[in-house]
Amino acid sequence: MSPSILAQPFSLRAESEDLPALSNYLLSLIAIKHSNLCVSADVHSTSALLQLAEEVGDSICMLKTHADIINDFSERSIQGLQEIATRKHFLIFEDRKFGDIGNTVESQYSRGPLHIASWAHITNAHIFPGPAVITSLQAAATSTLLSLNQSVSTEISTGTPRLSVDGSIPDSDHEPDRVRARIDGSDAPTLINSAPHTTSVPMRSTDQLHSTAAAGPTSATPEHSIVTATTTISQTISPSSTHPTSFTRSLSASSSDPSSALAMLGPPPHARGLLLLAQMSSANNHLTPAYTAACLAAAREHKGFVLGFIAQESLNREPGDRFLSIVPGVHLGEHGDGKGQRWRGPREVVRDEGADVVIVGRGVLGAKDRRAEAERYRTEAWKGYEERVERRK
At how many degrees (to 10) do helices 370-391 and 46-56 cross? Predict the structure, then answer.
């Protein structure tokens, strides 16, 4: 592992310009909330998911979900979770563990009843299908983010044109009053426009219709009004900085008021990120050192999309490595579950193994007071981080 990375505070790492924007954001969020805790939401209903998010949201930097085990997963689940994540300032990590050919994972990520790319900031994948799993997921993320920014504009034009000598209506002979509605409520600049579809319908006023009916079909052609509806489908990108700027200064200025620093941080960037499953916490798993090395090599080839690893230690082994290490298998007081799972304490995993974020599931879920237990885990993991940075100065 790279000792220089382990000695750096999260706030300093957050300012690195060679990281994906989502990594910068997460590191900043961790530094502001003093939380390197991710809770695993291994629950089976939307109500249980949202209740857990409410209870632990203030103590976490990420919530790990398993959408495919929630019996009633729907748009209500997504919208409710996004609202809580925004309010309590944490990222959503869908633990999908993609592992198939590129074409399949692209569809699994962006389509179907889960359509993960539309709502989860982060997901993960195995590398055993080959590097195409990374590029395919990245392509799906890009197309999904573009579609999320699609807006529809409708322009309605009305006016009373002057008739020509032959009774036709010259296009250039009227100055319409225009009303534009954007269904997304956004005033972001339009980047890609499709060809607009326009429909013009001649309309007669009520008085004109009455007079025409009284005069009969041989009366003179009445004056017309034109109503024109133009619908434009466009793509817009919400303005956002590529990397958060100077959070070290914002943190020092707001050290006594985390809410102020969180307000300065703002919402997550319009981006998606991938974690590679490089190591596992279960006994006798088949993720060999050679497999882990292959994951690391693939990550170095795709630094713009791969944020880091699900691992058991820091995998930053070369000076240029800046990957996040997300470590599961963490529990206070237990060492295993009798089903192959092995647990370690949060403090030792962060301090001694270089974990950036620890994932805790049953240690929090099984507690009588999950809010208090999440805070206990957050405190222990943060102490491990402080001890690591202090020891390596």
Answer: 50
In three-state secondary structure terms, 190 is strand
Active site residues: 97
Q: Which two tokens stand for residue 368?
A: 């009588």
Q: For residue 326, how far is the Cα from the chain centroid?
A: 17
pLDDT of residue 153: 47
Q: pTM of the full predicted structure?
A: 0.76
In whole angstroms, what is the distance from residue 344 CA to residue 330 CA? 5
Whole-number CA gyration radius for the chain: 28
CA atoms within 13 A on the CB side of 5: 23
Is residue 278 within 8 Å of residue 292, measured between CB atoms?
yes
Q: pLDDT class for 86, splitting at 50, 70, 90?
A: very high
Alpha-carbon gap, residue 71 to 69, rounded angstroms: 6
Is the pLDDT at 165 greater than 80, yes or no?
no
- Bigger pLDDT: 210 or 13? 13
